[in-house]
């Protein structure tokens, strides 16, 4: 298989090591790394560049960072390329939230799970947030939203914890919270106030 999905928080070293192993130069690397949602036009440009022959490497590498930013239409447009990549092409995607991708996309990629040093937030924090008053929730959330990147990492980690809790100790609040967290993650991919996004997520439940 020539399509890989790298799952974890620190994926850059894995990308660099694989490209070096395949002896692919910068000139033969096609990368989607801009912030915000990735739409179908960006995927079509990506596919068009991959069809061009390598300049000075034995193969080309196509990299899509944070694949959870792909719209459903963009994910569907990518399916054919994942299933049958152009000759001499590797496709690498990264994500911290594989559950946000279509199952048809995940099934066409070889999943590489990284051992991250940062563990998921304790379920105790999740339980506390669900039980606190609105004012107390905002105070609890404050340390996790200093920057947009901090807020994204917090939401992604909390999503993992909420999903595990839903599987083991299902409650009526958890499915609603997961929906709000997914919406917040999408909003944090564009230029918005991260504190307002996360605060609104927890004031909505």
What is this structure, in a nutshell?
The chain is α/β, with parallel strands linked by helices and 205 residues long.
Task: Describe the 3D structure.
The chain is an alpha/beta fold and 205 residues long. The chain folds into 2 domains: 111 residues, Rossmann fold (3-Layer(aba) Sandwich); 81 residues. The protein has 9 helices and 5 strands; from the N terminus they run βαβαβαβαβααααα. Strand 3, helix 3 and strand 4 form a beta-alpha-beta unit. Helix 2 packs parallel to helix 3. The longest helix is centred in the last third of the chain and has 21 residues.
Q: So, the CATH homologous superfamily of the largest domain?
A: P-loop containing nucleotide triphosphate hydrolases
Biggest sheet, spatial arrangement of strands: 2-3-4-1-5
Q: How many structural domains?
A: 2
> What's the Cα radius of gyration?
19 Å
Structural class comes to alpha/beta
Task: Name the shape in a single word.
Answer: elongated
- How many helices? The count is 9
Give the topology string: H per helix, E per strand: EHEHEHEHEHHHHH
**What is CATH's topology name of the largest domain?**
Rossmann fold
CATH architectural arrangement of the largest domain: 3-Layer(aba) Sandwich
Uncertain regions: pLDDT < 50 for 5+ in a row? none
State the total count of DSSP E strands: 5
Report strand %.
Answer: 5-15%
Bin the helical content. Answer: 40-55%
* Name of the top-level CATH class of the largest domain: Alpha Beta
What does the main sheet amount to?
Answer: 5 strands, parallel
């Amino acid at each position: 298989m020539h399509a890989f999905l790298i799952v974890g928080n620190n994926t850059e070293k894995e990308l660099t090591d694989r490209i070096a192993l395949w002896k692919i130069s910068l000139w033969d690397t096609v990368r989607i790394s801009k912030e915000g949602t990735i739409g179908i036009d960006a995927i079509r440009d990506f596919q068009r560049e991959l069809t061009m022959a390598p300049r000075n490497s034995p193969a080309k590498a196509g990299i899509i960072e944070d694949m959870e930013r792909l719209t459903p239409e963009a994910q569907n447009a990518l399916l054919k390329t994942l299933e049958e990549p152009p000759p001499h092409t590797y496709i690498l995607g990264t994500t911290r939230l594989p559950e946000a991708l279509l199952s048809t996309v995940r099934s066409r990629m070889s999943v590489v799970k990284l051992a991250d040093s940062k563990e998921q937030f304790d379920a105790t924090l999740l339980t506390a947030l669900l039980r606190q008053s609105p004012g107390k929730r905002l105070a609890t959330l404050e340390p996790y939203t200093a920057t947009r990147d901090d807020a994204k990492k917090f939401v992604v980690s909390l999503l993992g914890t909420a999903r595990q809790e839903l599987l083991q100790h299902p409650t009526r609040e958890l499915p609603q919270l997961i929906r709000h967290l997914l919406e917040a993650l999408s909003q944090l991919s564009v230029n918005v106030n991260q504190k307002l996004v996360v605060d609104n997520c927890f004031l909505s439940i």
